[in-house]
Amino acid sequence: MSIGYDRPLYILPFDHRASFQKGLFGFTPPLSPEQTAIVSDSKQVVYHGFKLALTWGVPLAAAAILVDEQFGAAILRDARTNGYTTCAPAEKSGQEEFEFEYGDRWRERIAAFAPTFVKVLVRYNPESDAAMNRRQAARLKDLSDYCHQNGRYFIFELLVPMTHEQSDRLEGDKDLYDHDLCPSLMIAAIKELQTAGVEPDVWKIEGLDRREECEAVVKVARHDGREHVGCIVLGRGANESRILGWLGAAAAVPGSIGFAVGRTSFWEALVALRDGKIARDAAVAEIADRYANGCTPSSRHAKGDCWPALHLPAINLSIFLLRGPAQLQR
Prior knowledge:
This protein has 330 residues and is α/β, with parallel strands linked by helices. It has a single domain (9-322), classed as Alpha-Beta Barrel (TIM Barrel). It has helices at residues 18-24, 33-55, 69-81, 106-113, 130-149, 164-169, 174-195, 211-221, 240-251, 263-274, 280-294, 317-322, and strands spanning 9-13, 63-66, 85-89, 117-123, 153-159, 202-206, 230-234, 256-260.
């Protein structure tokens, strides 16, 4: 299997596990069967929002879901039956060091659900613990090799957390870190992982404020024969205005093929549904609207292999950012 994926890819990710259990419902593992059913049902709401967005014109060929087996097994099966592009996580949730969710059984679990993409979330700072980075890279190479040998695309979600030394150097200024230091660390991390034999088809990267930073990341992701590798923007749960800026910077860059924005798309709707402030159908529609809006960044006039313009009815990101929970008229 050749390496790379360079077609448009608009992912609605809801593979969050701890966020749903503790953050949304206040549940403490291990969950009872009743609690598990509640979490699973909330993910069905997100999935129904995805399906509704498809009826509004989000292109099936570009649309994808990312959901976990623990609470979304039925969703993964239904999506596969319906011919949707699916992504499933391989990492154990909430770990500082990458570990497989199912230990030595990870190959078996991937084969059981046969997702289009296997995704990992990895915290990797090239100036951090070198021994831990080597351990992570060895496990990730095994996964990378497995995916390419078994017809699965591989998505690598790269987080570059600030180290204590870096925090001291910048006096704890996270915005300064994101603006001045993180882009170069991201590039260094990609190079190190490539050297270790980790070869994603798609890099899922933190949002960057400037187009030239996006271009630099895509350049290193595609260097040395990797010309079909794609990059997508992750949301990090940021506010809508910041995500708008990231999408606008990335959408005009050849090789930047889409996004994976989850909590910004669904969290407010699920909280309102949980609290009885909106009906289930309204929550589904709100999620569909926010997801569909992400598919039409303001830079869609860009040329080359950048994101194609979509012609969705009444979708406008600037309007979306100014309103609260939508009173939709679709």
